[in-house]
Amino acid sequence: MSATTPVLSRPTSTLPSTAGTGFLRHTAVLTLRQLRAAVRVPAFVVMNLVQPLIWLLLFGQLFKSVVEIPGFSGGADYLEFLTPGIVVMMALFGSAWAGTSFIEDMNRGVMDRLLTSPTHRGALMVASLVYQAVLTFVQTLIVLGVAWLLGARFDGGIAGVLVLLAAAMLLTASFSALSNAAALLARDQNVLIGLSQLITIPLMFLSSALMDTSLSADWVADVARFNPFEWAVVAGREALLSADPDWASVWSHLGFLAVFALVLGWLATRAFRTYQRSA
Q: Can you tell me which family this protein belongs to (predicted)?
């Protein structure tokens, strides 16, 4: 080879890239990558279930007499009232830690290799959201099964379960995107932990997840109307507990969640540019 002969380097990507289908193929490959990791180390999935199940078991018994308080509008069984709130709480807490996988990839140099390859940026984000939504789907079914074993019965049937699953997965996608964006911008696990605590706890208590807001201060109910966490609780509870739910309310709250998830997903994907400029 002469000294003037150009040397062409091979692409660094190991992912297939085809016009028109690259995004979907990259999303599928990256999602499977995370699912395989979860199967190899299932401790995270189990740990994310422990706290919600404890709350379901303890709170369901500790506050079961709440239904007798005048003004309580959540039905005659507190366990049934509580179950959708616990499902959505589990979705929120789990998604708040989604950015951890991004930080691990940054620390190992995997993120930089992916970003310098033809890998679709949107696929990197969407794969993370899909993975978290799959975990939420599985964990929700487990929580509902435990609640049923404890005696909870849901008049909404299969349709109600599907709505609750949709609400929980949309909330998961929203806050997973927010967590991923925080990871890309801060690149620090401690910052991510602090942010998750700052957001999740207030959102949970400024909602009807654990208590009917009609029994709370008026300002709590007013704030809850603009709380995405409350949107998921209201949609899931209305569909799950009622044989004849207010579908207008259900669909409107699911619509708010869908728009919220799309906006956060778009903003989080743009955070890749900031990460690359600062790396």
A: Belongs to the ABC-2 integral membrane protein family.
